[in-house]
Design brief:
The complex is a heterodimer of chains A (376) and B (315). Chain A is an alpha/beta fold. Chain A has helices spanning 2-17, 20-40, 42-47, 65-75, 87-96, 109-114, 130-153, 180-208, 211-217, 223-253, 260-284, 288-306, 317-325, 327-340, 344-371; strands at residues 53-59, 79-83, 101-105, 118-124, 165-169. Chain A has 2 domains: 2-44 and 178-375, no CATH class; 53-156, 3-Layer(aba) Sandwich (abc type-2 transporter like fold), CATH 3.40.1710. The longest helix of chain A has 31 residues, at 223-253. In chain B, 36% of the residues lie in helices and 27% in strands. Chain B has a 6-stranded mixed beta sheet with strand order 6-7-8-3-9-10, sandwiched between helices. A 4-stranded antiparallel beta sheet of chain B has the order 2-1-4-5, with helices on one face. Bound molecules: adenosine-5'-triphosphate and magnesium ion.
């Protein structure tokens, strides 16, 4: 029976692999859109990401560059900047939660930059705020290119023309800047896996109405194995898509998606939950048009709420909470966090949620099938 | 008895699709299920193979009830669904291999069965072509062959020749006839009465979900009370010969039409013998004899007042 079920998995994968359209939906389109978003929308993303990061800023710079940086941060729409008098005070603000991120501009900033050196601005935040930390770090890193212009505008010609290099350091290990390509690689992978799951559900509904399905049901392969085979084939497809997107974003678009082990674990868990969803929808709904509509509208709404199109940090608080409850939102947030500061323990809860969701969905669909008195 | 269905009924919502249908098939039997669109043929078949649970009634295969031993049904019935039931992006061979595996075949047995089926379907040369690139006739032939891959005891076919070219149709009919002659029990569904007459020994005519006639083909034909029409072509038709023919009571409605004498009769064979003798007495020898046999079409017409095909639904 296992052989028969494996044969069923295999023909489904073959059917898929031989359809140019299906392959495009599985891989071509997701890679293309990820590319567009990470390159074309990159500047917009870097420009106005955050609405509500509270920054405790210490400007120790003896020259004028520090002022330019401070002013730049104050002017950003998403930042609320408060001045702290010392490094300790800024860190204390962050520790007690009255600020999210501490930014310390060191005393030698102007000097370093005017000698063509490298200024090291410190950006600190507790691990729970690592996403915000990364966003701020990303902005500061991006400052290098605009600093000369900013200095001119401010009438303080201390910075040299040409590129200045501003790096950031952190007291916390592993901090990485969150870039557009990283964010959209994650957002798009999350979205397209969801869409693919819905495609699978629709394929399943169509198949269930076909005479081929009748023929399959009239064969000695037990119903449970049919379901298992559908699940496995869908899982393989989703997981393959995820890995392909992950590799493409890393190699082609320079996304930094975190350590392979944690990323694979997350992808495996998310794919499991989505496959469960696909099978439940595939068994629960009889009209393929309904599923089609669901995947067109539903998946996109979910993706929007989950932050795939536009970073969640811009949303009102309640929407952010909602986004975190959605499986794709949970995936996105966990993945972003993991990419920025790998922490296995942060994966525990999401993985449990994904596993539970997958199992519940499969049980539901088995129940639905049993409730129908007929084999078909 | 290989197959026995007793008092099957099935409703879809308020619509009674099948009502009190009973059928049997002996080993090696070829039973036709004939009926217009929407008569309930497919519904009946779905119940016979256990894909649809009857509201009432039961089905036995080799004495095992479908409710108690559905696995036995799955293993020993070959189903050929009404619509093409294949993986269209797989080749003919891949399809056969897959369905063979689903029936538990492996290794040499699988390979041998696949060859046999390709041969049967006349697709050996096209084994590595994808089904999507096949003509309708080739797809139909493969559709039938897949139902045979595990050499079922009972082959159940639901309108296997719909919409294909005459060659492929002939190919399928001949194949099934041969398998039946070799001992496979066949249940053949169609709304083409010629196919059923060609293939089957017995027939059940279904209309509005009910069996309206059931028995050997000849019995069912006779149900219609329809007469054969005989046409004798002669050099000339003299009045006295005509009068002599009319005196014979088994020859009815004797008329002349140019050089042809027409009459109707219950049993064509003896009637023709008698007529030829009467004509010989008058020095006449028919150049040609044509008989229009009573057929299932006529029987259906007689029983329902409607034709079997086209517009069977609206009454
Ligand atoms: N799933 C279904 N739901 C509701 N009604 C159905 C369903 N399947 C069939 N019917 C109805 O039941 C009746 C019998 O249908 P069935 O398909 O068994 O007829 P059929 O003899 O196979 O016709 P055809 O020659 O067109 O294949 C028809 O009136 C059909 O409309
Ligand atoms: Mg039918």
């Amino acid at each position: 029976m296992i052989r028969a079920a494996l044969a069923l998995v295999w023909v489904q994968l073959l059917q898929m692999a031989r359809s140019r359209r299906a392959l495009f939906a599985l891989l071509g389109w997701p890679v293309a859109l990820t590319a567009v978003l990470s390159f074309a929308l990159g500047p917009a993303f870097d420009g106005q990401l955050i609405t509500s990061v509270r920054v405790a800023l210490v400007n120790l710079d003896t020259g004028s560059t520090g002022d330019v940086v401070a002013q730049f941060l104050r002017d950003r729409s998403g930042f609320t900047v408060t001045a702290a008098s010392s490094q300790d005070e800024a860190l204390a603000d962050v520790a007690k939660g009255s600020a999210d991120v501490a930014v310390i501009i060191p005393a030698d900033t102007t000097e370093q930059i005017s000698h063509g050196g490298k200024a090291s601005v410190e950006v600190d935040a507790p691990p729970s705020k690592s996403t915000m930390q990364s966003v701020v770090a990303g902005v500061i890193q991006g400052l290098g290119t605009v600093l000369p212009v900013l200095s001119d505008v401010a009438g303080k010609g201390t910075a040299p023309r040409g590129l200045a290099e501003v790096s950031f350091v952190s007291q916390y290990s592993g901090g990485t800047a969150l870039t557009a390509s990283t964010y959209y690689a994650i957002g798009m992978t999350t979205l397209f896996m969801l869409t693919q799951a819905m495609n699978r559900a629709e394929a399943m509904v169509r198949d269930r109405r076909s005479d081929r399905w009748q023929r399959l049901c009239a064969a000695p392969l037990p119903a449970l194995w049919r379901t298992v085979a559908w699940f496995v084939a869908s899982y393989v497809l989703l997981f393959a898509q995820a890995v392909a997107l992950w590799v493409a974003s890393t190699l082609l678009f320079g996304a930094k998606l975190g350590t392979p082990g944690l990323t694979l674990a997350l992808l495996a868990g998310y794919a499991f939950a989505l496959t469960g969803l696909a099978v439940a929808v595939g068994y629960g709904i009889n009209n393929p048009e309904t599923v089609d509509g669901l995947s067109m509208v539903g998946a996109n709404i979910l993706a929007a709420l989950g932050g795939s199109f536009y970073p969640l940090y811009n949303f009102p608080h309640w929407l952010q909470v909602l986004g975190r409850i959605l499986p794709n939102g949970l995936m996105l947030q966990t993945w972003v966090q993991t990419a920025l500061s790998p922490d296995p323990s942060a994966l525990r809860l999401p993985l449990c949620v994904f596993a539970a969701m997958g199992v519940v969905c499969v049980l539901l669909s088995l129940g639905q099938r049993a409730a129908r008195r007929n084999a078909v | 008895m290989v197959l026995e269905a007793r008092s099957l009924s099935k409703s879809y919502g308020n619509k009674r699709a099948v009502e009190d249908v009973s059928l049997t098939a002996e080993p090696g039997d070829a039973l036709g299920l004939l009926g217009p669109n929407g008569a309930g043929k497919s519904t009946t078949i779905l119940m016979l193979v256990g894909l649809l649970e009857p509201d009432e009634g039961d089905v036995w295969l080799d004495g095992r009830s479908i409710r108690q031993d559905p696995r036995y049904f799955r293993q020993h019935i070959g189903l050929v669904p009404q619509r093409i039931a294949l993986y269209e992006r797989l080749t003919a061979e891949e399809n056969l291999r897959f369905w063979g595996r689903v029936y538990g075949l492996t290794g040499k047995a699988l390979a041998a069965q696949v060859e046999w089926c390709l041969e049967l379907a006349g697709l050996t040369e096209h084994r590595r072509e994808r089904v999507a690139h096949f003509s309708a006739g080739m797809q139909r032939r493969l559709n039938v062959a897949v139902g045979l891959v595990h050499r079922p005891k009972l082959l159940i076919m639901d309108e296997p020749t719909v919409g294909i070219d005459p060659q492929s149709r002939g190919h399928i009919l001949d194949t099934v006839r041969r398998l039946n002659a070799e001992g496979m029990t066949v249940l053949y569904t169609s709304h083409y009465m010629e196919e059923v007459e060609y293939l089957c020994r017995r027939v059940a005519i279904l209309d509005h979900g009910q069996v309206i006639a059931y028995g050997s083909i000849d019995d069912v034909r006779r149900l219609a009370g329809a007469l054969s029409t005989v046409r004798l072509t002669l050099p000339e038709v003299p009045e006295d010969a005509l009068a002599a023919l009319r005196q014979n009571l088994t020859l009815r409605n004797v008329v002349a039409d140019g050089n042809t004498v027409l009459f109707q009769t219950q049993e064509a064979g003896p009637a023709i013998a008698r007529a030829v003798q009467v004509l010989a007495d008058h020095g006449l020898h028919p150049a040609r004899i044509d008989v229009d046999e009573p057929n299932l079409e006529a029987a259906f017409l007689h029983l329902t007042g409607r034709r079997l095909r086209d517009g069977g639904e609206e009454a």
